[in-house]
Input
Amino acid sequence: MSWNSTIGFVPAARIAIAPLIFIVCICINSAEAQVSQGVVLASANRASNDQVYINTGHSSQGRLREVLGRAKAQWKQDRLPPLEPARKELEKALESLEQFVQVGSSNGDKWSKFLRLADVKEQLQSDKPSYTKLLDLEMNMRQNYLGLEYSQFTRLRDSLVRYGYASRFHAQEEGFGRFISKQIDDAIQLLNDEPAVNSALTAEVGNILSTLHQANQQPEIISELRGLFGQPNARVYVKEHFVNRLVSRGVAQPQNVDECILGTRVLGTAFMNGNVSANLLTMSNGIGLQLSLSACMTSQSRGYNRGVVLNTTSVSPVLATKQLFVTNTSVTGATAQVTTQLESTINSIQHRSRIVRRIASRKAAQQKPQADAVAEGRLQDRICNEFEQQVSQQIGQANQQLQKMKQPRPELTRVGIQQPKLDFSSTSTLVAANTTQAAVYQLAAPSNCPLPQPVEAGLLAQIHQSAITNALDVVMAGRTLRSRELGDLVKQITGKEPEEEMKKEIEGEEWSITFNPYQPVRIEFDDNLLKITLRLIQMTREKQSIRDPVSISTAYSPSFDGSILTLNRQAEVSVTSDRDTTGVQATAMRAFIKTKFDKTFREQIATQPIDLKNRFPKATNLNIDLKRLTYQIDEGWLQVALP
Output
């Protein structure tokens, strides 16, 4: 007779790793949100005073002064982009696109009209191509319409940019050296007057960097300037206790027992009770995580062997672990490990014969160690296999999600924004992610975020104002916005038809505004305010036109009730001329523009309700109380924290 007191196999509770992907989604969506609204997470020490210094050290001020001086001294006229090669490149790109859309066909002619290819040809044939018009034509191709992400369109768009640069320097070749020299002198003077990094200095240095890039100047100087303002402008920190709020869950699972060990058929019930938790692991290029199932299994069973019935109870602690490694490209896992310590008790032996019961008792005692060992081995194998299978299945699903998320976003390609690249890392206490939203000719953050971090924060998000300003620069720089195009713009952004008030604006008198080619929209985070400045270089109204650099500014204070984000305007919309232009026409035009933007910058702007469970439906254990969210806005940074 053989005997077995095993509790059988109780499968591990289903371990969802969707919360892990939720964390990655937070990071990826944060980076992409820089394009539209900017959300990022990070950690930094507070500076010893109220001003932020480049790379947190005075020596970098001297470094900036030295690099600017070299940029001025090493300006090379012969490095300016030549006009003729750029013209030929544009001609080839135009020819390729015309063949692609089949100009001459009904559909091709519609594309030609929409892209204003006739205007492109006019600029190619002109002895004095207009930088402003070329920039407007290029911006016309940065719209969120299906097809504009194809290489034939982006090639023409890029060729227009290069031809625009070449035409700009060709027209001003003699005086451009003096222009950049004055730009650099102004920046150095700002640095001498106020060594702390401020918006004025950053804007001036950024403008110099943009000019050096357009003028094809020394790459090493461009790289050094970017490096001085090269801190990531978007970061995420998630502490281990916040991860466990997403991953941790209770386990309470019954299971029928039906085993045969050493000739004894064992039937009964078993129950697993415990919890799943996560421990972060140190990983330099991704997120390391160990999932742990810690539980206690108990069982009551009856063993049947040739008329003898053994009534037994069993108990065993269970610890199942599996290490996961999450990067921005894949999720992988190590082999699951399971440990148990089975203890069983024979409570009674049933048979009508006392002699048989006595023999069965002696035989059961002899075989108990062997039966327990076999039962425990099977128990571990089955728990390990089930744990491995369940987690591996969800790793596969997670990888599918990640593959979708890392696919090129056509809407970003259409408007010319590069998809942000995230860097992940983890320690034993937190997950960190960061990205830099900046093109090769743009500046990022001058330093880490100086705002004090709430000690209780489990999720910390920080974004520097440069992330949003840079993204808007790519989309809006030099763009001419015409009143008759507002309806199309609304459809591209919202996917909906414009409201009645907007329709009246479209059907009313025609007007247009042309944005500055450099930083057309400036965002400033300061003193718990979101400050917005639109920079225009030209305005038209019906047949009137005035080229007058104008700044339109206002400020908002945000509030959040746990569901709806509301921006409350704290300042009147101001329209100021950069040149203090006077005259009836200029004054009337500025008054007209102010009327328009009073409607745009409303007293109060509210978002749609935020529902994380709908946004991340697969994060089934998501339990985040957004009412506990706190934020700080100061010194160029927006910081959001959740406990």
Remarks:
- The first strand starts at residue 234 and ends at 239.
- Confidence is low (pLDDT under 50) at residues 1-19, 30-58.
- Residues 354-406 form the longest helix (53 residues).
- The CA atoms of residues 480 and 514 lie 4 Å apart.
